[in-house]
Design goal:
By secondary structure, this protein is mainly α. The chain has two domains: 90 residues, Uncharacterised protein YqeY/AIM41, N-terminal domain (Hypothetical Protein Yqey, Chain: A, domain1), CATH 1.10.1510; 51 residues, Arc Repressor Mutant, subunit A (Orthogonal Bundle), CATH 1.10.10.410. Helices cover 76% and strands 0% of the residues. It is built from seven helices and no strands. Helix 2 crosses helix 4. The chain starts with a helix and ends with a helix.
């Protein structure tokens, strides 16, 4: 079952079970996916974006919500921060399992060996290999710093 189908099934179940908060989050995810579908068609791309693109969309949504929750907490708006954190929980249900630090380190080592990375100029090759193989499973911002440190 594709990720898009899993989201649609979850949306229908949330409607049937009258789970308003969950339904709201699932609708936000679907809206973001539809926006990307429309943008892709306009660029001459495929009619529907891939599961990897959907995973990237949801990863971006999680980061946005984390930043919003942090801002709300700093501003003393805890009820809004809790709402953002609850949305993150729903989104995480559909994202691949995040890799542990050890798994990330092993994946970085494998990508460096595979690409023959020898200097800091090869960071892009290593990151491209990691993104192709582990999309949605790791924080690429943190991994980029880790890869650069290996050449350090």
């Amino acid at each position: 079952m594709s990720l898009r189908d899993r989201l649609q099934t979850a949306l229908k179940e949330a409607m049937k079970e009258r789970q308003a908060d969950r339904l709201s989050t699932l609708r936000l995810i679907n809206a973001a996916i539809k926006d990307r579908d429309i943008a892709s068609r306009g660029d001459g791309g495929p009619e529907m974006v891939s599961d990897a693109d959907i995973t990237a969309i949801m990863g971006k949504m999680v980061k946005q919500r984390q930043e919003s929750a942090r801002a709300y907490e700093e501003g003393g708006r805890l009820e809004l921060a809790e709402k953002e954190l609850a949305e993150i929980v729903v989104i995480h249900e559909f994202l691949p399992r995040q890799m542990s630090a050890d798994e990330v380190a092993a994946a970085v080592e494998a990508a460096m060996a595979e690409t023959g990375a020898a200097s800091i100029r090869d960071v892009g090759k290593v990151m491209a290999a990691l993104k192709a193989r582990h999309a949605g499973q790791m924080d690429f911002g943190a991994v980029g710093a880790l890869v650069k440190a290996r050449f350090g």
